[in-house]
Write a structure and sequence with these properties.
Layout (H helix, E strand, L loop, with lengths): L4 H7 L15 H11 L5 E6 L5 H16 L2 E6 L12 E5 L3 E7 L5 E9 L2 H17 L1 E2 L7
Parallel strand pairs: 1-2
Antiparallel strand pairs: 2-6, 3-4, 4-5
Helix pairs in contact: 2-3
């Protein structure tokens, strides 16, 4: 979020050193690492407008932490999505049975009621299929060079 103290610090020049794990490792990283250790695949695909906004550039700069935890991350420039049908919101799919849709305000903040969970099989299937389409054409983080 735009009011995130870490984002504000990043805008002011703060950068995390990948070698200083204690400065950036947190509970999310533990959860991902534990899931991956159990054999769970954790994938994140980001559809992005280019040039990247400041917040998306911040996310790009911190992606090393996602990778260190065991996530696979890919990026897809928005102009390469015009023939894809994807939900209009940010979303997560868990085990193909639960979807979490995030609803943001016009200024990029998560809305007060911004988390919508559903186990509706049709909506979960739609999100799962959309994610797979995005994943297939997205660029692995290690190869993506944002403009």
């Amino acid at each position: 979020m735009l009011d995130d103290p870490e984002f504000i610090a990043w805008q002011n020049g703060k950068r995390h050193a990948p070698t200083d794990r204690s400065s950036w490792w947190g509970g999310w990283h533990d959860a991902v690492q534990n899931a991956v250790a159990r054999g769970v695949t954790v994938r994140r695909a980001r559809i992005v407008s280019e040039p990247l906004s400041a917040y998306t550039r911040y996310e790009y700069d911190l992606t090393f932490a996602n990778l260190a935890a065991g996530e696979a991350v890919r990026w897809l420039p928005r102009r390469r999505t015009t023939d894809l049908a994807v939900p209009g919101t940010d979303f997560w799919v868990f085990d193909g049975t639960l979807a979490l849709f995030h609803h943001f305000t016009g200024d990029g903040q998560l809305a007060d009621d911004g988390r919508e969970y559903t186990d509706d099989s049709a909506r979960v299937r739609l999100a799962t299929e959309a994610f797979e389409e995005v994943w297939q054409r997205a660029i692995p983080h290690e190869e993506y060079r944002p403009s």
